Sequence to fold (122 residues):
Amino acid sequence: HDIGKPASTRLRKGRITAYNHDKIGAKLSKDFLEACTDEKDFIEKVSPLVYYHMQILYVLKELPFGDIAGMRRQVSVSDAALLGFCDRLGRTGADIPDEINNTLLFLKKCNERTDYPWLRMT
Fold:
């Protein structure tokens, strides 16, 4: 899902950023998958997920890139939430309870159900 990072990573004001890696990654993932398989349905499910995997951040931070309506038209919101949740947990020092709460808040803002087993602390 972060396949667009190499093409978008820059040093800006002393910080490493990868703006638009989601959009770049959607195109790259589609191109890559088309070279690997003829399964159009699979490709048409994966590429939009790559595109929308940052929505959890954009929506929660009320950034102008948040696009709940567009996301709904293209992907399952719960799939986008799960991918965003996994993305956040992959960071060093991730705070699991905080990320669960953020994901629940995202789902609520999207008017989605919040009773997924992967959002339960055991």
Remarks:
- Residues 21-36 form the longest helix (16 residues).
- The helical segments are 5-8, 21-36, 40-52, 55-60, 68-74, 77-89, 96-109.
- The chain has a mean pLDDT of 95.
